[in-house]
Amino acid sequence: MIERYDLIVIGAGPAGLSAAIEAAKNGMKPIVFDENAKPGGQLFKQIHKFFGSKEHKAKIRGFNIGYELLEEANKLGVDVRLNATVVGLYDEKEVTVRIGDGIKHFKGDSVLVATGASENMVTFKGWTLPGVIGAGAAQTMMNLHHIKPGNRILMLGSGNVGLVVSYQLMQAGCEVVALVDAAPRIGGYGVHAAKISRCGVPFYLSHTIVEASGTDRVTGVTIAQVDSHFNFIEGTEKTFDVDTICVAVGLSPMSQLLKQAGVKMKDTPGGYVPECDEWGRTSVPGIFAAGDVSGIEEASSAMIEGRIAGSVISQDLGFIEKSEMEARASELEDALGSLREGMFAPKNRGKLIEKTEEGIDVSMNLLEHGFVADDEIERYPGVTHRKGIHPVIECTQNIPCNPCQDACPKGCISIGANITSLPTVTENPCIGCGMCVASCSGQAIFLVDEDTGDGYGTVTLPYEFLPIPEKGTKGVALGRDGHEVCEAEVVSVRSAKAFDHTNLLTMKVPKNMVMKARFFKEVRL
Fold first, then answer.
1. Residue 124: in which H helix or E strand, if any?
2. Same domain, 222 and 257
3. Which of 115, 122, 160, 323 is most buried by its number of CB atoms within 10 A?
4. Is the pLDDT confidence value at 59 over 70?
5. Does 24 reside within a domain?
6. pLDDT (tens digit, 9 = 90+) per residue, 310-335?
7. CB-side neighbour CA atoms (13 Å) of 111
8. Domain match, 414 and 485 both
């Protein structure tokens, strides 16, 4: 017996769920299949706050976005079948699904493939030893199953996945001994790299793994510098004692079902993807693609692509008028377009951007070492000096993000109409509420009082580690490079529901150090 639906969605991740929700809102009857035991795809692994603006779910943590999508889908009556592996996509949009020990057949008036992507792997001597894992697997262990992947970990890959997972490993209590990449420059957002650097993790760019040591498990790793042709440079080897190696060297679209269905495919630097129009239509009528399966991007983009596809499918099948679809698609395309601007826009992949949109020199130290040097930081418009408490914004790249502008109740921070502009500090007085610090998805905002009148100043910074230091705790302040710069004492730690688990730690440091001290480390005797 073949069950029939208006829309079959393959994949219950951000793109698939968003498409099903959009279709259900328009009166369609969608069904969603996912091979996993939980819906939401990568969202429930993502404990960090999203970039973008309000329409992109900015400053909301990934797993909370997942819960929001599931709640919306449930309210609309979307049928989500889990532990259901789609094994075939055939003519007439027939789908075969393995559920338990049996195979079931379904037909859809339309089919949306939103199968996402899988982790790439790199081979080196010892790469099959237990303890060599993908960064996504580490996220699954930590954020879904609450298991530490290891104790001492080396991360290979400096894209956003490698940077984000490195930080989450530290939040889980792991020690990240180094972050390594064969590329000469950091591949992900500078703010992600900066928050890792100030925690003391060194970056080794133009380096890669020579071998993992151990017999029945990983006990160490040797890296070496590479030349411009990625050949090892003799005599540059460095060895670390580790029990885990995390690999974050990119993703590949899981496009096999589309190829099986006869969709025209193309080989791109980002993987083997279907040829699609701007609305997700493939070369086979009635078959659509959205999310990472059609090109690797952020989850925010995948959700918008899914909603566009859901709206277009609704119109194709007569559930809404063309004018309604075009208005909705135009609105969504504007939101998607803003995410594809700035230094990390698809058109800029692989390019060295030397100046910001404002004409400011990009920090080469950030790109090559993971942190903005002290003699570079003053050039950026968010880095200000004034009497009393005021924000210092160390956002130095044109990233599509503006929660800080919306968060400040006094209008102290301005980004303007262009979401990728560098934030600036206005003349409006700061009341020290800390909402900007807590709202910054890149943890790049600090509240500074440069002179409290006693030879000291204070720095308020975002803090997301356990245990949380108590008032009066003495320790050291670390600079942007993760090295100790001075003694420090915790003045206060503020937590509030509005901060969404980002604690605001205020430390007292000598006043000549307030523009250098960027992290607090407790000194345990």
1. none
2. no
3. 115
4. yes
5. yes
6. 999 999 999 999 999 999 999 999 99
7. 27
8. yes
Tokens encoding 53: 């603006």
Share of the chain above pLDDT 90, in %: 93
* pLDDT over threshold 90, residue 42: no
pLDDT one-digit tens code per residue, 393-448? 999 999 999 999 999 999 999 999 899 999 999 999 999 999 999 999 999 999 99
pLDDT at 392: 98
List residues bridging with 271 in a β-sheet.
268
Backbone angle region of 100, left / alpha / beta, with phi > 0 → left and psi within -120 to 50 → alpha = left
Last residue of a domain, one of 220, 247, 274: 247
Q: Which tokens in the block code for residue 280?
A: 């997700």
Residue 525 has pLDDT above 70, yes or no: no
The DSSP-derived string for 383-423 is ----SSEEEEE---S--SB-HHHHH-TT--EE--S-TTSPP
Residue 54: pLDDT band (50, 70, 90) is: confident
Tell which of 247, 279, 297 closes a domain: 247
pLDDT band at 191 (very low <50, low <70, confident <90, very high): very high
pLDDT above 70 covers what percent of the chain? 100
Residue range 332-364, pLDDT digits in tens: 999 999 999 999 988 898 899 999 999 999 999
**Alpha carbons 15 and 337: distance in angstroms, whole number:** 16
Max Cα–Cα distance, the chain, nearest Å: 81
399 and 273 belong to one structural domain: no
- Please say whether the dihedral angle defined by the alpha carbons of residues 341, 398, 206 and 168, taken in this order, is positive or negative: negative
Quick count: other Cβ atoms within 10 Å of Cβ 468?
13
Question: For residue 303, which phi and psi values (nearest 5 degrees)?
Answer: -65, -40
What domain range includes position 162?
121-247
462-490, pLDDT tens digit by residue? 999 999 999 999 999 999 999 999 999 99
Task: Put residue 40 in one of left, alpha, beta given phi > 0 → left and psi -120 to 50 → alpha.
Answer: left
Q: If DSSP codes are grouped into helix, strand and coil, which group holds residue 192?
A: helix
Name every residue whose Cβ is closer than 8 Å to that of residue 117 and which is 6 or more positions away in sequence. 251, 252, 253, 254, 271, 292, 293, 296
- Pull the structure tokens for residue 174: 């792991």
For helices 299-316 and 14-25, the axis angle rounded to 10 degrees is: 30
Work out how many domains the chain is built from and give that number. 3
Nearest to 120 by CA among 4, 14, 248, 1: 248
Residue 190, CA distances (Å) to 113, 359, 366, 392, 436 in order: 33, 18, 7, 16, 18
In this structure, the answer to whether residues 475 and 425 fall within a common structural domain is yes
Which amino acid, 103? I
Do 237 and 296 lie in one domain? The reply is no
